[in-house]
Amino acid sequence: MTDGFFASEIIWPGLCAGLLIGMLCAWYGVFVVQRGLGFLSAGLAHAAFGGVALGLVLGLSQPLWVALPFMVVVAILLCVLRHKTGVRHDTLIGMLFSVSMAFGLIVLQYRDQLTSDAMSYLFGDLVFVQWSDVYLALALLLVTAALLPMWSRWAYASFDEELAQADRIDVKRDDYILIIMIALLVAAAVKIAGIILCSAFFVIPPACAVMLSRHFTQCTIYAVVIGALSVFLGMYLSYYADWPCGAAVVAVQALCFVFSAMVKRFV
Amino acid sequence: MTVEITCDNVSVKLGDFLAVSDLTCVIPASSFCVIYGPNGAGKSTFLKLLQGVMPCSAGSVLLNKQEPNKFPAKDIAIVPQIKNFDRQFPARAIDLVATGLNRRWPWLLSTNAKQKCMQALEDVGIAELAERSLGKLSGGELQRVYVARLMARQASLVLLDEPATGMDVAAEKDLHRLLENYQAQTQATILMISHDWDTAQHHASHVLLLNHSMRWFGVTEDGPNEEAMRNTFGHVGHHHPIQHGVHDESCTHD
């Protein structure tokens, strides 16, 4: 059975991109979950629609190249509004994702062709991933590797922002970098895996890891492992059970969550 | 190193609100100064000014002739008033103490760092709690972890914002004993916000009465007079030593 899964050429780009995106989302997801921003990835994923729509109207074959900078602008706007107005993150995310989607719908009115491709773009599927998407995920992995020293700063600010500030950590600047990285990752994850899987990647593996870990390093490692493992098992399950790929991955993650909750409860 | 704090006509505006105004004093090196005043009097704002995370709107604050934001952060340790962190955050007591050493959240603890953290935890009498989750510690135990954190840092300026909040009497006594031992070893300058006059009377070398502006500053033995207390709180507490001429009576002003 394994031979069939691994011998299938169509699986490899999706598996590679899925593993990379799964691990990266979990890596950043631990900060998302610890800061109570579980809605961030879902909100940003929906906001990507505005960027995709703009890219289509501009006639680009790959609207992702507009969606990526568009998401960076949304992320910066989120940080600026947060710092200038003091309005809570979840409120701002709710507002920005609605405004971005409305912007996308208005922009699409100026396009002659049907708009269904804009929607299909948001519901990516690991099965239809191309090697170019794997390279995009690899590029994000390289940027994340370059930002490895930020982990201890982000972790400190996630624990207690005021304590980190008192130790002269530029929490505001670090927040911008974190949110921009999350926005870029969301834009890529939406293209590769779709909105639902993207949101799940950011939230479920870190939520499992929090229940299983005693310290934050362990939590980050567990989240990344669960993120990768769920992609592999989900795609494997999808291949043999003929389930939709994204749904199978989310189902595996849900099982991981139940397992983690039981471990926390009984061990 | 010892730290002298020089405040010259310091004012801090938070938006339109004047949190601190015209504060002028020199807090001597190696002193234990209690900042005493009613709620919302600008005490925590003053500590933030000393941390270097907030600028003066007017006047100047100098730590050994250096502006606070230029003063080495490794020489300042704080014990915050409200523990902001999420109790579900996966962290052990030793992780928090380690932030005292490196001013970063630890990815891995080196043997040397671990030894220093364990020593600090042992000094505050909770070495056995090193591996325990922060979320499972009691208020008093958590406060000791924060004290261990400042001991690990060996800071020469210690800022405590109502550290005894939520502590029982025995734990509070322990806290003061630990701080006094720490000061004896390091000659650190300690500033502590407190609502407890007893704390000022028994532990502080200096008292700063603050209600937006400075109402009184001096050595504890000289004590603030009744007028200064009235200016600060709008009243003098029933059990205040000034009213009774007794110096070891305690009272609390909230």
CATH architecture of chain B: 3-Layer(aba) Sandwich
Q: Please bin the fraction of helical residues of chain B.
A: 25-40%
The profile of the biggest β sheet of chain B is:
6 strands, mixed
The coarse silhouette of chain A is globular
Shape of chain B: globular
Beta strand % of chain A: under 5%
Tally the structural domains of chain B: 1
Number of strands of chain B: 9
CATH level 1 name of chain B: Alpha Beta
Task: Catalogue the unreliable spans of chain A.
Answer: none
Structural class of chain B: alpha/beta
Number of strands of chain A: 0
Q: How would a textbook summarize the main sheet of chain A?
A: none
Strand order of the largest sheet of chain B: 5-6-7-3-8-9
Tell me the name of the CATH homologous superfamily of chain B: P-loop containing nucleotide triphosphate hydrolases
Number of domains of chain A: 1
> Which radius of gyration of chain A do the C-alpha atoms yield?
18 Å
Describe this structure in words.
The complex is a heterodimer of chains A (267) and B (254). Chain A is mainly alpha-helical. Chain A has 13 helices and no strands. Chain A has helices at residues 2-7, 11-34, 38-57, 64-85, 89-108, 116-122, 131-146, 150-159, 161-166, 171-193, 195-212, 216-241, 245-266. In chain A, helix 2 (11-34) runs antiparallel to helix 12, helix 3 (38-57) crosses helix 10 and helix 4 runs antiparallel to helix 10. Chain B has one domain: 3-Layer(aba) Sandwich (Rossmann fold), CATH 3.40.50. Chain B has eight helices and nine strands. Chain B has helices at residues 43-51, 93-102, 111-123, 139-153, 169-186, 197-203, 226-233, 241-244, and strands spanning 5-14, 17-27, 32-36, 58-63, 76-79, 157-161, 189-194, 206-211, 213-219. The longest helix of chain B is centred in the C-terminal third of the chain and has 18 residues, at 169-186. Chain B starts with a strand and ends in a 10-residue tail after the last helix. At the A-B interface, helix 8, helix 9 and helix 12 of A face helix 2 of B.
